[in-house]
TrEMBL record:
<protein>
    <submittedName>
        <fullName>Uncharacterized protein</fullName>
    </submittedName>
</protein>
<dbReference type="InterPro" id="IPR052117">
    <property type="entry name" value="Cas10/Csm1_subtype-III-A"/>
</dbReference>
<dbReference type="InterPro" id="IPR043128">
    <property type="entry name" value="Rev_trsase/Diguanyl_cyclase"/>
</dbReference>
Amino acid sequence: MSGGGHFYLAVPAKAIDRLDEYQRLIDSFIYKAHGTDLAVIITGIKLSLAETAEFSETLKKLGELSEEHKNKKFSTLINTRIFFEPTRVKAESCPYCYCETKQHNKAGEHEYEFCESFAELGKQLAKYKYEEKTDIEIKHVDDVFEAFGYKLVFRNEGNPKVFVLQKTDKLDLQRCMTYISPATYMCRDEEGNLIELDEMANKSIGVKRWGVLRGDVDNLGKIFRKGLVDLLPALKCEDSSCGVLAY
């Protein structure tokens, strides 16, 4: 048994140019949740002002385009790792989605949390009169990442999905994706632990204070553009675009 629905949106013409990007994002979420059992297809065409007068012809073209895209569902994921990850099927699997069950109900029966959440949603819809969509409350920096669908997990062991936080001369792409450069220039103790400001001040010789050293270079942008020819008359250089920086 299968069913579907259609909806239409009037959007700025420039949005049509990003449909592939939107489709890829939707496919990634839908596939993680439902596998290939459910798909959302988005298609679109640009219209001139004159073409809006023949909207029935536009709907016909959109219908044909949608049918074409239905025949290549999840094509945006074909070349990605997520599409070819093996599916573990065991005796203790969900009878609906065949995913491995991870919990048991009170009767001792196996349940899959995601599928059971649909049953819980159905109960809520039948029980209450109103439903409210609330915004995610941001109380922690982790809430910001979760609002975009991510959860930060820090670990000391590599895998193909992690990012390296400490710079290294050679990246092992079997154990990481790539290197990112976070702001980790902080004072540490002998064991590598971060030192709080009060502790840093107590380590001072003399007055127990901590300070900030700031450096400034005047006209740095001009130096990069024109070099040091004007600033160092003794420097002979035929090409005024070249320069020398001394440290």
